[in-house]
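Run folding on both entries below.
>entry_1
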Amino acid sequence: MDSFNARYAWSISLAAALGGLLFGYDWVVIGGAKPFYETYFRLTTAGSIGWANSCALLGCLIGSLVAGWAADRFGRKKLLAVSAVLFAVSSAFTALSGNFSAFIVWRITGGVAIGIASNVSPTYIAEVSPAPWRGRLVALNQLTIVIGILAAQIVNWLIAEKVPLDATAEMIRQSWNGQYGWRWMFAAVIAPSIVFFLAALFVPESPRWLVKQGCVAGARATLAKIGGAVYAEDAVAEIRSTLSDDSGASWLDLFSPGVRRALGIGIALAVLQQWSGINVIFNYAEEIYRAAGYGVSDVLFNIVITGAINLVFTLVALQFVDRVGRRPLMLIGCAGIGIAHFLIGLAYRERLHGLPVLILTLFAIAGYAMSLAPVTWVLISEIFPNRLRGRAISVSVSALWIASFALTYSFPSIGKALGPDGTFWLYAGICLIGFGFVFWRVPETRGKTLEQIERELTVA
């Protein structure tokens, strides 16, 4: 275990995880740009405002679906580079958009980049990671997502602080922010996208994909750099044993008896991650904190605090995911988030506004950051067979984006029907169901090779 080349394994994993950084920033920056591009394009109807804010989700779904087939056909390395190019191009042209139609096209293109990165980055990291380190290295991708989110939240806060509270829509439109500021918010992604592209050119291809393509020498060379010649020989032999009966993987193979169980777990975890309700706190933080009695500047500062808590407890997850295991963290997370949601609902019912709601939302975010947020990605990247991993992850991640859209779209209607207390109690109930699912159905994968996990799931 101590003979692994830590510097090499962490460096190539970090290079792949740059996709997560761009994912996080591009996903959240729209919130800070919203007041400015809306006035610039004169968006006034609920339909146009909602479409501008959510159209990237369509791209995310397209990207995640395409990534599964493309990653299995062309390799993980090429898809990392493609996503980097899409991030750079979409960011540049979003910033240069002269009309609303162009803005929508390039936001959807940026969503495609997010969809590809959310699929391929954790897949690549899982396939190059030694088993004892795989949890931490895959969770590194979630850490970069969180860093990107926090960076966007800070930028949003700093820019919004410069806007007078009594500014009219026309005043905002004529201001520097209304004409140019929001463009620079999107353009900021170009530089790290170029770094990501260059890094993708220099990382090796996934050894498991190479073995699947018959390029055993290339796979052996990469594995030897990670763990030495003996480790490389053993790993290649184990990988080849799982591919010995591969007569050409197809989408229908996802529904074979052994794989179907893993696919069900992957889809359920993806949906649980979204319907735990935490992304409602992120996406509707302004409304939630306003309802709790906070003013505009305090709301923006609270949002930055949520990003900081998210970052700190993601670091906690990195320390424990390979020590404690995946199942314990997921169980603790479901229980903690569920309790927090129940208490948030109680606070709303008892009209306890202000600090109690802030503390409870931070508690929920902390539980999410150290469990469902990173560990779901770890498990999804681990539980599928080598020959079908790209396609299976594609289906799971697509389910995640569909669940994300359904959650975001339904929150206003659910909130209106059930009230804020009932809404959070609903999410608490979902977390309770998630706890039971993890306890009864999700296997522990800590310390096992991908091939061991494959054998255990497909014969169970």
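>entry_2
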Amino acid sequence: MTAERLDGTVAVVTGASSGIGAATAIRLAAEGATVVASARRLDRLEELVAHITADGGRAAAVECDVADGEQARGLIAGTVDEFGRLDTLVNNAGVMLLGPIVDADPEDWERMISVNVDGLLACTHAALPHLLDAAQTSSRRVADIVNLSSTAGRFPRVGSGVYNLAKVGITAFTESLRQEVTARSVRVSAVEPGAVDTELIDHLSPGALEGFWQRFDGVERLLSEDVADVIAFIVTQPRRVAINEVLLRPTDQEL
């Protein structure tokens, strides 16, 4: 399969202030897309955009908390208003707050659902009309949604109950939407990384962090760039090729 560049296209990447989102924004810009990088930390986004433009790419920074539906819808509407189109949506924004279900803080659950699920739904719902239009009117005749799930979307584990719930839901929603719009040339893909060396674990409680390190002791974690390469592989395929689901783990990760 020969990859196709993204010249003339516009991509939105959520959760782009660090980690997988930042690496994906850089990678898609290198493929020729104009990238709208969104997250809550505007200063980090501006640094990212400066990096992309210094390398000859095109990018814009948009401060956005996708858990706020109005902000999520504004992100998509503002992108189309400024750049006239939308071809790719990467729903990457997410939080991971692990711990036992018994005696858990329900606010942690609400935060995970609001960002990981509600944010993804709001961005997707707002983006779909524009992606469907791009798939019919652009020279590429295809558009893409890539949703970041996780190995947690495949393999439930103790201590990850609501995170599992969110990621299983994302994987299921992705497949259902794929069936609905694939005949209209919008490809919908789920990417399910295992352990990645990102800031995602920075929000864990001391007990959950200790359990994380016990589980992944001696495991060389994936880099954000590894996942970004997979996302770029998905969205640069010829129109006839749809990569529906990708599960990737560190070589040393058993489950």
